[in-house]
Amino acid sequence: MSNSVRWFTRKYICRNGIEERTKFCVRSSQKGTRLDRAVRKASRASDNAERQLARLSNNNFDTEDKHLVLEYTDVMLRILYERALRSGIEPFEDAMYFEAKKEFDNWIRRVQRKLKGVVEFKYIGITSDLDGEKKTPVRLHHHVVINKEALETCKEKWKGFVLDADLYTVHNDFSALAAYLINQVRYIPNAKRYTPSRNLEPPKTTKPVEITRYGDSEMRIPKGCIKLYRSEYAKGANQYIRYYRPPKDERFNNENGRRQI
Predict the structure, then answer these.
(1) Residue 3 — very low, low, confident or very high, per pLDDT cuts 50/70/90?
(2) Which of 93, 129, 172, 217 could make an SS bond with 16 (beta carbons 3.0 to 4.6 A apart)?
(3) What is the pTM of this model?
(4) Cα–Cα distance between 205 and 228 in angstroms, integer?
(5) Are 144 and 101 in contact (CB under 8 A)?
(6) What 3-state class would DSSP assign to 145?
(7) pLDDT score for 1
């Protein structure tokens, strides 16, 4: 029996009003458990690290939280250099990357010890030695998104230079920031591209639902929501949309011309 094309959709709902929907096809004539496995595999294939990072950010942080850049002094870099030489890892830039990642993890532990029992510490961090636009090598550094309550302790516990900035969003959406961070990470096989704290909560995710009618049609933004992104429609291809769903009172005021979002 030849495989039939079946369309499924899945939704991701974040606390800050950002929602996403993915539509993907499964070429399978199977039923039951085998079909479930095929659907899960197709759903994972329609995702990427950038979207996953954006979802964690949208569900756990807000515009009052902070984006830190942790930079190294010359002395700190010399210590990393010597450790990387002793590690024997090749190529050498990978050895430096892993040593920097250890330094970042040690910093996280120092912050956690200081804040334990005082305030909750939430973070998402990356280690970078790459210019995200030019794709050329740059001085090792770290980017980390933290909750505002941990700001002073984070600065205190890093031994090098710390730059802090407000978090950039568009209609509460951290997707642009997530894209920026992921672009800073050089690809290393089997290495995680970002490090989230264990206390981050994933967004509400619906189970894949089969589309029984017009599965191959273009996805639409729900009424009252603001379009943030919609991938170009092509017949027979997967599609992805992201939008902001304002609170009910904001939608009412906006529709009546009393308030613009």
Answers:
(1) low
(2) 172
(3) 0.87
(4) 19
(5) no
(6) strand
(7) 41
Taking the alpha carbons at both ends of the chain, their separation in whole angstroms is 52
**Closest among 218, 224, 211, 223 to 241, alpha carbons compared:** 218
According to DSSP, the residues that pair with 22 across neighbouring strands are 10, 240
Instruction: Report which residue type is found at 231.
Output: S
How many distinct helices (H) and strands (E) make up the chain?
Answer: 7, 11
The answer to whether residue 254 scores a pLDDT higher than 60 is no
Look up residue 244 and give its amino acid: Y
Q: Among 54, 51, 59, which Cα is nearest to 22's?
A: 51
pLDDT bin (cut points 50, 70, 90) of residue 260 is very low
d(CA 142, CA 72): 9
Angle at CA 139, nearest 5°, toward 135 and 142? Answer: 90
HEC assignment per residue over 80-108? HHHHHHHHCCCCHHHHHHHHHHHHHHHHH
**Tens digit of pLDDT for each residue in 5-60?**
889 999 999 999 999 999 988 876 666 677 777 777 777 666 788 999 999 999 99
Structure token pair of residue 207: 């189970």
Identify the CA nearest to 119 among candidates 144, 143, 148, 145: 148
Determine the Cα–Cα distance for residues 134 and 136; give it in Å rounded to an integer.
5
Whose tokens are 């920031």? That residue is 177
The token duo for 90 is 């090749």
